Amino acid sequence: MRTKPYIQDNSALGYSVGITLDRFIKSKQDDFPFASGELSQLLRDIALATKIVNREINRAGLSNIGGAFGQTNVQGEEQQKLDVVANIRFTRALTKGGEVCAVVSEEDDEVIDLQNNSGKYVVAIDPLDGSSNIDVNISIGTVFSIYRRVTPLGSPIQPEDVMQPGNKQVAAGYVLYGSSTMLVYTTGHGVNGFTYENSLGEFFLSHPDIKAPETGNVYSINEGLYYQMAEGLRNFVCDCKKKNFSARYIGSLVADFHRNLLKGGIYIYPGTDNNPQGKLRLLYEANALAFIAEQAGAKATNGIDRILDMVPTSLHQRTPLIIGSRDLVQEAESFLNGKKEAFTEKFQ
């Protein structure tokens, strides 16, 4: 005979789900006295497109949309089929949403004028970062920045609406398509992460108020570029090895950044002999991640200047990027700028 009340332990069978992305966005509308719901709707439009792209990625191996598309983008990079699919999905969602007047995409040479002169916002986006990894089932991502237009509503968009420094962003985020799909974003009031629950079709708050560790023991850099880097960065890499740091480089910017944001570490894509300005784009990659990093207590620089203070001079402008835990970024800057002595023992 059972003498105590029987209470079933469901901890191994189920889990609790919390606040949805939609409800979270609505709860934060008061953070923007200048807005009347448009920014919230814009974030929901991006989330919807994310769900669609997530579906396309998950079935890529079955629907023959993996692999190369056969064309190159403005960067001179071979487009993947999923690059094109993701670009269409996000552009369509932003067009139908009605809050955006223009889109800057990695996949398009020029600004996409949505012919919506009443739209208050400009979106800069890399629809699918690291898409060449899709065929080998490695994590990929989406990166986006949101700016308020600066010209009067009702007038055609102008270059100054688009060519804004990162410190003018009103929101930025990324989506990681990995073992789970996560959307992480900031509106300048901290960083929050949401995990997609496929069976419910909803993003749920899973990582509230993300804070980056001040330091870490992971460095993420393509060491194949070692002899093309500045001597200071080579010395920093040597220093990491001397300290027995772990080298972690996936080749998908979002995936490398996300890991270091949560666990501590540094990501570097340097200027090199062949590409002095690096390969990452300022408007729709570096700015977005720098905004998120700073809101989480981390740091982002090109080695000399704060990323968010850089004023873009061209649509697809590139920049070196050093981003991650504050102490590690400052250490890398010290080596790069010659404030730390060079090692006599070089990495071979």
From TrEMBL:
SUPFAM superfamilies named in the record: Carbohydrate phosphatase (SSF56655)
Cofactor note text: Binds 2 magnesium ions per subunit.
InterPro entries registered for this protein in UniProt: FBPase_C_dom, FBPase_class-1, FBPase_N, FBPtase
The protein's Enzyme Commission number: 3.1.3.11
Cofactor(s) listed: Mg(2+)
Stretches assigned to the Fructose-1-6-bisphosphatase class I N-terminal domain: 19-208
Residues binding Mg(2+) 1: E106, D126, L128
Stated family: Belongs to the FBPase class 1 family.
Protein name: Fructose-1,6-bisphosphatase class 1
GN (gene name): fbp
